[in-house]
Fold this sequence. Notes:
It is a single chain. It contains two helices and four strands. It is α+β, with helices and mostly antiparallel strands and 157 residues long. The protein starts with 34 loop residues before the first strand and ends with a strand.
Amino acid sequence: MNETRLTPHSWPAPGPLTGPVELYAERPAASAAPVVYVPDAYGRMVPVTRAQADAMRAMVPATTPRDLTPQPLIDPRAQVVLAAGVGTGAAAAGVGYGLGQILAPLAAIGSSSVLWALALAAVLGTTARRTPAPSTYVTNHVDARWWGRACSTTRTR
């Protein structure tokens, strides 16, 4: 009995070849063209003759190269509109503050002018009614003497 031992390199046994076998010498001359590898639809590389690859390239339209220059993060027109809005708001706030500083004292003068007029009238009215008072001068003179005695005189002019 002749037993064949299977080694790890021969397991599983390769299947038998089926179909016609083409030898290198039997190939047509057209297939002697160089072979190139192109990706198929699934991303696998398949061998194709250069003539077939050129024909496939002619069928696929050439894509235009993309513009890869970096774009600004914010639209330039939006930046202009935003800057105009911020600038206008700041200017309006500044003008409003300035007008407030100018007009506030004018409003205070308008409302307090009545008070100042009454105070001026009161001051002028009291000074006009005054009659000159007679001037009286009193002089007290005290002379200290011995043993706690004192002598005083009073003069009035």
